[in-house]
Amino acid sequence: MTIAYLIDYDINSNSGVLTKIFQQSQQWILKGYTVYYVSTKTLAIYDSNKNLMKQHKPLNINMKRVGTALKLLYSSYHLDRLLKNIDFDILYMRYMLFMPFLSKVLKKHKVIMEINADDTLEYKLHSNLTHIYNKYTRYLVLKHIDSFICVSDELKDKFIYFDKPIYVIANGIDTSKYTVSKNQNHKPRLVFIGTPNQSWHGIDKIIYMANHIDEFEFYIIGTKAKDTDNLKYFGYLSERESTKIIQQCDVGIGTLSIYKKGLNEASPLKSRQYLACGLPIIYAYKDTDLRGDEEFTLLLENSKDNIDLEKIKQFVNKVYQNNELQNSARVFAEDFLDYEKKENIRLNIFQKVLDEK
Buried-most residue among 95, 182, 237, 341 (CB within 10 A)? Predict the structure, then answer.
């Protein structure tokens, strides 16, 4: 099977989305599948080693809104011509804004779309103009999709009305990059990793915990502020650096205020990092891969007043230096969260779509 992965990024740019795309597709390549990357951003095709194969000259114009519209028109027009340079069985793509000639391309191929977010909500949060454009054009893209793969059941419910085959595969992780450390911290150490200015992460609630639980230490990676006696900020760290810090801790803290995004379900990378490192976790959302009653998890309510200090203290004291629960967390990550397992499921879906008349 040959897969053309349609992306709207420059393949050489630094992007978390691209990192996930390459981690996914690397699993396909390891299993003997051929993968091409097709960029609407640079109007180029790259082979599985990211070597440039073919490129149309992109339109370089800077006229703000008018320029954006012209680029969409130009890119979609040349996309069809670009794809004629390769033979492939499946066109795989994430959700992207409608482009005037995109429908022509989608009609010609078997197309599977990965849904990572509610596009109507995401665009509304960032640009009212883009939100309106997307609202009235999204159907022109979605009606040509042969199958959807959503990262959550919550998102699946939003796309099920298209009456197309629809599957759920939550976000995964490469567990081989992480190891379990048997820490001997003198007191329980809890860690959170995130990015600044994301109120739905619930960092204010971690600060509240630190102010009221003197017997625990708290580490926050990704945000910089003034340290206190039991709360330390690390600011931005590379993946390798942040992993070293996580492995020095006893409990991972997941997202605590996702209700601020109007969501209830997620599968964040941070929770997968914690579990791959053998850390039990505290979180406040429905995780697509977790039941919520595992011994190495503490599930809080997805609400404003969800910080139950006594419940948190009981859980942390139970899992602190508990090697059996640490091993259970790691085994769970290997069995259910690893990219290899996730991508085997995805490839089976690809074959199902190909087998459909």
Answer: 95
Q: How far is CA 33 from CA 1, 10, 24, 147, 240, in A?
A: 6, 23, 12, 20, 29
Selection from 317, 180, 309 nearest residue 249 by Cα:
180
Domain 2-172+339-355 matches domain 175-337 at the CATH topology level: yes
CATH homologous superfamily of 175-337 equals Glycogen Phosphorylase B; (3.40.50.2000)
Q: How far is CA 348 from the centre of its chain?
A: 21
Task: Determine contact, residues 145/246, Cβ cutoff 8 Å.
Answer: no
The CATH homologous superfamily for domain 2-172+339-355 is: Glycogen Phosphorylase B; (3.40.50.2000)
pTM: 0.89
Could you report the per-residue pLDDT of 17-38, keeping only the tens digit for each?
898 999 999 999 999 999 999 9
Q: What are phi and psi of 34, to 5 degrees?
A: -95, 135
Q: What are phi and psi of 5, to 5 degrees?
A: -95, 110
